[in-house]
Design a protein that fits this description.
CATH architecture of the largest domain: 3-Layer(aba) Sandwich
Strand content: 5-15%
Distance between the termini: 38 Å
Largest sheet: 7 strands, parallel
Helix content: 40-55%
Number of strands: 7
CATH topology of the largest domain: Rossmann fold
Oligomer: single chain
CATH superfamily of the largest domain: NAD(P)-binding Rossmann-like Domain
Bound molecules: nicotinamide-adenine-dinucleotide
Shape: globular
């Protein structure tokens, strides 16, 4: 098992991409720490099912990634943190002149500042372990823009920049830092938007997916959480030891346009 003996902390991992990344890292042999801001039985059950199926140690730790002290507390509570996946994220869509300040502040806190706080506490742990990987889940919107998503795009461009600085500060150590830039990924969040979009456009499921939702994704296919998980495992492998300070797009050609 390529990642046996490593511990991975994945923020925002009780659904969607974060959960897919946790499964992929666990299947590659890493112990995993799942996280979100809730503390429900089903959150802990996710960790239990990963442990039962893969044989790794899996824990769920509640921490609100909108709060700097809780971000830092998560990494403290994890004990080891060889692999840090900064994934927690939210979205709000509105024109800049109508964008609610509290939504701006929440998106910058959860999608960007949380990664600063977790990275600050994780790097000393990686240094004492003599190995580390920081994988930031950015977006095609970390490289390109769209209207009405000011906070999200500012945060995602910011996390690409943070990944580069983290890479430069660790360049002479066995630690790498990179950002994965997914296009549209079929997560429960995106799946839930399909019925309303079908109604709005009077289209069937396949037509709404290909013509409306994936209009900017030339492959006209969603990326999957398994593909983002596989890319994360690759970035944690020895083959990726000299890949640092860069972005990997998993976007069906979006950023080639
Ligand atoms: P999702 O809503 O399924 O996952 C978001 C995760 O973040 C959830 O586990 C949620 O509980 C957690 N979260 C939200 N607020 C939090 C907080 N305050 N503290 C801790 N955890 C919190 O959505 P997803 O699509 O899986 O998105 C995951 C990441 O991938 C996000 O950063 C998102 O921007 C990015 N992304 C998603 C897509 C896509 O098409 N789905 C594309 C590009 C990038």
């Amino acid at each position: 098992m390529v990642l046996a003996g490593k511990t991975a902390v994945i923020t925002g991992s009780n659904s969607g991409i974060g959960l897919g990344v946790a499964w992929a890292l666990a299947r590659a042999g890493a112990d995993v720490v799942l996280n979100s801001f809730t503390d429900r039985d089903e959150d802990h059950a996710l960790a239990a099912s990963i442990a039962a199926e893969t044989g790794v140690t899996a824990r769920y730790i509640k921490a609100d990634m909108s709060k700097g002290d809780e971000c830092r507390g998560l990494i403290d509570a994890a004990g080891r943190c060889d692999i840090l996946v900064n994934n927690a994220g939210i979205q709000h869509v509105a024109p800049i002149d109508e964008f609610p300040t509290e939504k701006w502040d929440a998106i910058i806190a959860i999608n960007l500042s949380s990664a600063f706080h977790t990275t600050a506490v994780a790097l000393p742990k990686m240094r004492s372990a003599g190995w580390g990987r920081v994988v930031n889940i950015a977006s095609a919107h970390g490289l390109t823009a769209s209207p009405y998503k000011a906070a999200y795009i500012a945060a995602k461009h910011g996390i690409v920049g943070l990944s580069k600085t983290t890479a430069l500060e660790t360049a002479e150590e066995p630690i790498t830092a990179n950002a994965i830039c997914p296009g549209y990924v079929l997560t429960p969040l995106v799946e839930a938007q399909i019925p309303d979009t079908m109604k709005k456009y009077g289209m069937g499921r396949e037509e709404v997916i290909k013509k409306v939702m994936l209009e900017r994704q030339p492959s006209r296919e969603f990326a999957t959480v398994e593909q983002i998980g596989g890319t994360t495992v690759f970035l944690c492998s020895d083959a990726a030891a000299q890949i640092t300070g860069t972005t990997i797009s998993v976007d069906g050609g979006w950023t080639a346009l």
